[in-house]
From TrEMBL:
First-listed, main subcellular location of the protein, grouped into a coarse class: cytoplasm
EC numbers on record: 2.8.4.3
Annotated function: Catalyzes the methylthiolation of N6-(dimethylallyl)adenosine (i(6)A), leading to the formation of 2-methylthio-N6-(dimethylallyl)adenosine (ms(2)i(6)A) at position 37 in tRNAs that read codons beginning with uridine.
Catalytic activity, as annotated: N(6)-dimethylallyladenosine(37) in tRNA + (sulfur carrier)-SH + AH2 + 2 S-adenosyl-L-methionine = 2-methylsulfanyl-N(6)-dimethylallyladenosine(37) in tRNA + (sulfur carrier)-H + 5'-deoxyadenosine + L-methionine + A + S-adenosyl-L-homocysteine + 2 H(+)
UniProt-recorded name of the protein: tRNA-2-methylthio-N(6)-dimethylallyladenosine synthase
SUPFAM superfamilies tied to this protein: Radical SAM enzymes
Top EC class of this enzyme: transferase
Alphabetized UniProt keyword annotations: 4Fe-4S, Cytoplasm, Iron, Iron-sulfur, Metal-binding, S-adenosyl-L-methionine, Transferase, tRNA processing
PANTHER family: CDK5 REGULATORY SUBUNIT-ASSOCIATED PROTEIN 1, MITOCHONDRIAL TRNA METHYLTHIOTRANSFERASE CDK5RAP1
MTTase N-terminal domain residues: 7-125
The protein's required cofactors: [4Fe-4S] cluster
Quaternary structure and partners: Monomer.
Annotated source species: Streptomyces siamensis
Location within or outside the cell: Cytoplasm
Length: 499
């Protein structure tokens, strides 16, 4: 009797960290249903292709329909191939997707990702598209199976949804009101991950430091950070993204007093102008924001602070923009993720008067980027001569092969390329190096590695890779479901709900 080959799948992810984490869940669900991951570079040549979409950019739908259009002829030549669309754009557009792309088999929303395997099977049996959009969360995503992407660090979701009403952001309408996860469940997941070899976790939420608001405990987030400090074997704790409104002194104290909470903070600014902040419906002003930065630097002198900024919000004057430049000079961010304002259909800002001409926005954007590049370089130069412990990273140094270097992350999340030592070093292991050179976006340690510490995280990476090498490409192994999110805060985007 012939053995039927398992069906393959591919998940394509757009958007913020929440989408990246949701895609880990979607992969876990599909593998639990018997699918195997398609080899790298399949580019749609899979039995099931899932688009996990984002709705925060003006051209998000054009990007989706362009990709769907490219798959249409492929699907017509491949009997049984299925295409699914989920995420924020699916939640927003619903039936429109099937009308514009009738070859799509399944449309599901942000609240019911756990239904994907069932919907795929129903579409196959009934031979018609299945559109199912839940209006509220059916199950907290962390209760779903997961195929994590790496072996030494992991996202841990502590809340979903957002209670803010920023005028540039549509995500609260798509992800719903904030819903917090039980603290005991969060800590149990972290302990299980550490037991599997994970040594770094990132606490994740649309507004992570508002955690506890639905139970009336304003100090719940700082208590959670301190509880993470009690977990043996957990070496690094990060979180993203907080909101200045909810960033209280007890959180700063918990960061400073909990050794495994890293000296890193991603604090979205969006604008330095009080007038623009009010129009954005951001519930803080310049003084409040700079006051937080000052307190963090006083409590954690070596903290690296990054941010998100929107340039060209409707009504932004040259004076308003200069206020943003002022905050950037005062705050001296390690890095700023700067975005030109683009309309998000369905948001109040999209129909505001005073939309800024493209050429004006571009000119301001270039000035801001130039200023931040100068500051980033100056701040990185201060690292030269310091001795740092790096967690060795996987796939973060694009030129490592050519330069005979490896790459890792410092405690403050700076990217460091270092000379490859004679002894074996694995992702998840820890090395001690001296910084010799600084560039605006990375550091170099060109001398010999001072110390190598092999870790349980490195053991987990080695075990996972050895097992994957022994299996056919794309097959999930039943190994610990552990992994590393994309380097923070690369995946952030202004207005995507994580800020």
């Amino acid at each position: 009797m012939d053995v039927q080959e398992p069906k393959t799948y591919e998940v394509r992810t757009y958007g913020c960290q929440m989408n990246v984490h949701d895609s880990e869940r979607l992969s876990g669900l599909l593998e639990g249903a018997g699918y195997v991951r398609a080899p790298e570079g399949s580019d749609g040549d899979a039995d099931v292709v899932v688009f996990n979409t984002c709705a925060v950019r003006e051209n998000a739908d054009n990007r989706l329909y362009g990709n769907l259009g490219r798959l249409a002829p492929m699907k017509s030549k491949r009997p049984g191939m299925q295409i699914a669309v989920g995420g924020c754009l699916a939640q927003k557009d619903r039936d429109t997707i099937v009308k514009k792309a009738p070859w799509v088999d399944v449309v599901f929303g942000t609240h019911n990702i756990g239904k994907l395997p069932v919907l795929l099977e129903r579409a196959r049996v009934q031979e018609e598209a299945q559109v199912e959009i839940a209006e509220s969360l059916e199950a907290f995503p962390s209760t779903l199976p997961t195929r994590r992407e790496s072996a030494y660090a992991a996202w841990v979701s502590i809340s979903v949804g957002c209670n803010n009403t920023c005028t540039f952001c549509i995500v609260p309408a798509l992800r719903g009101k904030e819903k917090d996860r039980r603290t005991g469940d969060i800590l149990a997941e972290i302990e299980a991950l550490v037991g599997e070899g994970v040594s770094e976790i990132t606490l994740l939420g649309q507004n992570v430091n508002a955690y506890g608001s639905d139970i009336g405990d304003r100090e719940a987030f700082s208590k959670l950070l301190r509880a993470c400090g009690q977990i043996e074997g957990l070496e690094r704790v990060r979180f993203t993204s907080p909101h200045p409104r909810d960033f209280t002194d007890d959180v700063i104290a918990a960061m400073a007093e909990t050794p495994n909470v890293m000296p890193q903070l991603h604090m979205p600014l969006q604008s330095g102008s009080d007038t623009v902040l009010k129009a954005m419906r951001r519930s803080y002003r310049q003084d409040r924001y700079l006051g937080i930065i000052e307190k963090v630097r006083a409590a954690i002198p070596h903290a690296a602070i990054t941010t998100d900024i929107i340039v060209g919000f409707p009504g932004e004057t040259e004076e308003d923009f200069e206020q943003t430049m002022h905050v950037v000079r005062e705050a001296r961010f390690t890095q700023a993720f700067t975005f030109q304002y683009s309309k998000r259909p369905g948001t109040p800002a999209a129909t505001m008067e005073g939309q800024i001409p493209k050429e004006v926005v571009q000119a301001r954007y270039e000035r801001l980027v130039a200023l931040q590049e100068e500051i980033s370089w100056d701040e990185n130069k201060k690292q030269v001569g310091r001795t740092l412990e790096l967690m060795v990273a996987e796939g973060e140094g694009r030129k490592d092969g050519a330069t005979h270097r490896l790459s890792g992350r410092a405690p403050d999340n700076r990217l460091v390329h270092f000379t490859k030592p004679d002894e074996e070093v694995r992702p998840g292991d820890v090395v001690t190096v001296e910084i010799t050179y600084a560039a605006p976006h990375h550091l170099l340690a060109e001398g010999q590695v001072l110390k190598v510490r092999r870790t349980r995280a490195g053991d987990a990476w080695e075990k996972r890779n050895a097992a994957e090498a022994a299996k056919p490409a794309g097959v999930m192994l039943g190994l610990p479901k552990i992994g590393m999110p994309a380097p923070l805060p690369v995946a952030t985007g202004s207005g995507c709900g994580c800020d």
